[in-house]
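Dissemination and training. As part of the outreach component of the grant, students in the summer workshop were shown how a complex can be specified as a set of sequence lines and then modelled as a single object. The example used during the hands-on session is reproduced here so that future cohorts can follow it. Participants entered these lines:
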Amino acid sequence: MLEKPLIVRGFPLLSAVSLVLVVLTTEVGLNVWVLSGGPAVAALAVYTVILVGLAAAPTRLGQWHAAGAAFAVLVFGGRALGFVSVIVDSADAGDARWNLIGAVAERVVLLASLLIWHRSQIVVAAKRQVRRLSVS
Amino acid sequence: MTGLASTTVAVVAVIAVSEAIADLGELGTIAADGSRLALIAGGMLIAYRVTSKAHREAVDLYREASADAAAALVRERAEAAVNLAREREEWARREASLLAQLHYLDRPPPSG
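and obtained this result:
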């Protein structure tokens, strides 16, 4: 019985909290490969708002999952590729930082999890939206 | 699986090209930034379209299922109404028959 609220509301809330913590605690400045500094923080903020909205009203805001999937690619794909860029740049400089490969893999897993979650939850939301329309 | 493999190859190729041309002066930097932007924007677009398509397909599927369920309910109720009408007709026929028999028994005795 606890699985459903954890998947529908717990997962996006946890992700939103982790994004806020990333913004608040980073020491090297945010970078999502194509954006850095203020614009990168703005992208994370938009994605955080989408996740909080989806946790608050998963059925009514169900279509936000499409935008959420796009921002997941920007934020987590950007962060993964940002680390790849650091590895390549450090290799060019003669001191390759291979220890960052784990960070890349970690962000790829996070991105895959979020994309699968958005894709599956938008179907669940569609089912609830149709049911709500047919009842009313 | 083929899609995942081709996506991975495309991402690695774009990264390799953008990193290679990034050091080739100002134009190289612009081209590298452009290819990075194109890669991320393409990824965002694909994610958006795949998720939207899943939503559209799910809405169509559940709407169809909902319409089918509603039609089945209407059909079931109509069949029940027809059966009830038939039963009532049968009872009315029996009642009429019994009344006719009673009327026959109650008739006055034949004169003469």
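The CA atoms of residues 101 and 107 of chain B lie 10 Å apart. Students were then asked to discuss how this feature might be tested experimentally.
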